[in-house]
Design goal:
single chain; about 625 residues; mainly beta; Maltoporin, Chain A; 22-stranded antiparallel barrel; 5-stranded mixed β-sheet
Length: about 625
């Protein structure tokens, strides 16, 4: 009955978009994540752009919540770890999708040198100004890992001054304090954020998967002259989490709150970032940044220390009808274990250009040359080294049909150099494996009116050496390797419609087919099969209503059934079940005070992540809720 109600809600949202009219305005937004800035209507690649107002209207409590309920990104906790979640864009599979998308915060890479997901729980959602998603593009600008695209999270230039707190079921508590200062040539921001829960799953000893997450951010921007900007930021994250292991199908159906065991992890991260931007004249500018991160990850049986250093410098030149950018960047990462040190070092040079042939026609192109070096230094044994030179290319064209619509086409060549975990099996060095290489093709249509924003795109990706884990059925003989040849294709639709001054609806839909063409390790068993963990139909729908000071949004997320994450032969007895979640959020604002509340998984749907038969991790499997208050000053 619950699923029928959810389906009816989705259908009603879609029908609503065709009947009414609005007098409000939807604006064309500038895309800042590409090397050369462009607005979304004239961009030569596919985009999804979400503003601070979009984020606020969603009533999302964190970044993962927003990505899952509003965007085309598939999100799932990392084997039960809600603070560190898996991402998938354009059908690379929930197990490996996050390694095929580059995630940035203000241009700083969040991707790790090992298989750990990007730590987006270190970014308080209140600090975010905008989220930009580049699909099937971004490899020239950001290189290694941008096969599916790029997610760039941009934080506030100046914070609002406020305190915020909420409480919810399962002992959920949050408190946030934000300060922003602006005086003449100085902007200074500080933010403290704390979240904790008592947990949702219980083991035989009545212990629960309790956790907490603390974030502290400070940054300062100084303008010595009108042409020079200096910036410095310090971010600190500290989290302790317990997450439960998998369940059998019977256990999952009988009681998904049950836990047979817990894994406990402590994680801390200190990030220092500094940079500058200087305008030599109206046509020429130089910007550069440097980042240093020290991170510790501790489990009960082992721990690792990480040291990351990165830099990027870009020289921009523009005239009336063309723009050119030259740049260099680098990333040097160490994982320091108790018995070894493993290093991954990336260095690259890139160039990008954009030329306006006419007022309506624009072409863009870019090329990147990147060197990736690996070094494995076990204590008391020989050092192993390897390196690769990899290339990325991008070619795009955009033609504006009229003042409100445009068409575009894009070709992008990208690559993924393996993370350091891919060279190990069962804790022992396996071998250096091949980087994956992808040819991406995208064509699309944009139509941006005062009351409606529509984006359509068709894409295809041809892959060589897609990286995956070959599971023989025994952990002792399984290993990481490459799929010889594979491909993906699909359709993407985004539409936001302002029905009237108070009512709006939005739709984000993607249809994705991901196929394995050839793979030798399976002796032909995998040939022609679907890549596991990829849903064909993915949809998020929203219906929002604003009147006076009351704002309400009803949303639904649906992903259809797929093969379990390890089912490369498509022959397991159990499949990944469809995902359904309906959320209802509301807020009321009076002067400087905002009261808000949200119910997630309104109809109490069972959801889980299937790895294989009887290996199921419950995900968003029960109704949750929270309510709180925000006071500005």
């Amino acid at each position: 009955m619950q699923k029928k109600i959810s389906t009816s809600l989705v259908a009603s949202f879609l029908l609503a978009t065709s009947n009414l009219y609005s007098a409000q305005n939807l604006e064309t937004i500038t895309v800042t994540s590409s090397l050369i800035k462009s607005d979304e209507k004239s961009a030569t690649f596919a985009t999804e752009i979400y503003t601070k107002e979009d984020i606020k209207s969603s009533k999302s409590k964190d970044v993962y919540d927003f990505l899952s309920s509003q965007t085309s990104v598939n999100v799932s906790p990392y084997f039960g770890n809600g603070f560190s979640q898996l991402l998938d864009l354009r059908g690379y599979g929930i197990a490996n999708g996050g390694e095929n998308v580059v995630v940035l915060v203000n241009g700083r890479r969040m991707n790790n040198i090992d298989s750990a997901p990007q730590l987006l729980s270190s970014i308080p959602i209140e600090s975010i100004e905008r989220i930009e998603i580049l699909k099937g593009s971004g490899s020239v600008a950001f290189g290694d890992g941008a096969n599916a695209g790029v997610i760039n999270i941009i934080t506030n230039g100046k914070n609002d001054n406020y305190i915020k707190s909420y409480v919810g079921n399962n002992g959920t508590k949050n408190a946030t304090a934000s300060l922003g200062f602006n005086y003449e040539k100085i902007i200074a921001n500080a933010l403290i954020d704390y979240t904790s829960t008592d947990g949702t799953r219980v083991d035989l000893n009545d212990d629960k998967d309790e956790n907490y997450n603390k974030n502290k951010n400070f940054n300062i921007i100084y303008f010595p002259t009108d042409d020079l900007e200096l910036n410095l930021a310090r971010n600190y994250s500290n989290m302790d989490t317990k997450y439960a292991g998998s369940l059998t199908l019977d256990e999952y159906k009988n009681n998904p709150n049950k836990a047979n065991s817990f894994t406990e992890q402590y994680l801390s991260s200190y990030v220092t970032t500094g940079g500058f931007k200087y305008n030599f004249n109206p046509n020429l500018s130089l910007e550069s940044s440097y980042s240093d991160e020290d991170k510790r990850s501790e489990f009960t049986t082992f721990k690792s220390k990480y040291e990351y250093k990165s830099f990027v410098s870009k020289l921009n030149y523009q005239e009336n009808n063309y723009k050119v950018l030259l740049g260099v960047d680098g990333f040097d990462g160490d994982r320091i274990g108790t018995s070894d040190i493993t290093n991954k070092n990336n260095k690259a040079v890139f160039v990008s250009g954009e030329y306006n042939i006419s007022d309506d026609l624009k072409v863009s192109s870019g090329v990147r040359r990147e060197n990736v070096e690996y070094k494995y230094e076990p204590n008391g044994a020989d050092t192993l080294k390897n390196d690769e030179y990899l290339n990325a290319y991008d070619l795009g064209i955009n033609y504006q049909l009229d003042n409100i619509s445009s068409i575009f086409a894009n070709y992008n060549k990208s690559f993924q150099a393996p993370d350091i975990d891919k060279f190990f099996s069962n804790g022992l060095f396996n071998d250096f494996i091949e980087p994956s290489k992808v040819n991406n093709y995208t064509v699309g249509y944009n139509n941006i009116r005062k009351n409606n924003k529509l984006k359509l795109s068709l894409f295809r990706a041809d892959l060589k050496n897609e990286i995956y884990y070959y599971n023989t059925g025994s952990w002792a003989t399984s290993f990481n390797t490459n799929i010889d040849k594979s491909h993906k294709y699909g359709l993407e639709v985004f539409d936001k419609y302002l029905i009237n001054d108070n009512l709006y609806t939005s739709l984000n839909y993607s249809y994705i087919i991901a196929k394995i063409d050839e793979e030798n390790e399976g002796n032909g068993t995998y040939n022609g099969k679907d890549l596991p963990g990829v849903s064909k139909h993915n949809i998020t729908v929203n219906l929002g209503y604003d009147i006076n000071n009351l704002n309400t949004v009803l949303s639904h997320t649906y992903r259809n059934s797929a093969y379990a994450a390890d089912d490369f032969a498509n022959n397991f007895n159990q499949k990944q079940e469809a995902y359904n979640s309906t959320d209802l959020g509301t807020s009321y604002t009076y002067q400087n005070v905002e009261l808000f509340a949200k119910i997630q998984n309104l109809f109490d749907e069972d959801n889980g992540l299937w790895i294989s038969d009887d290996v199921i991790y419950p995900v968003n499997f029960e109704r949750t809720y929270y309510a709180g208050m925000k006071v500005k000053f």
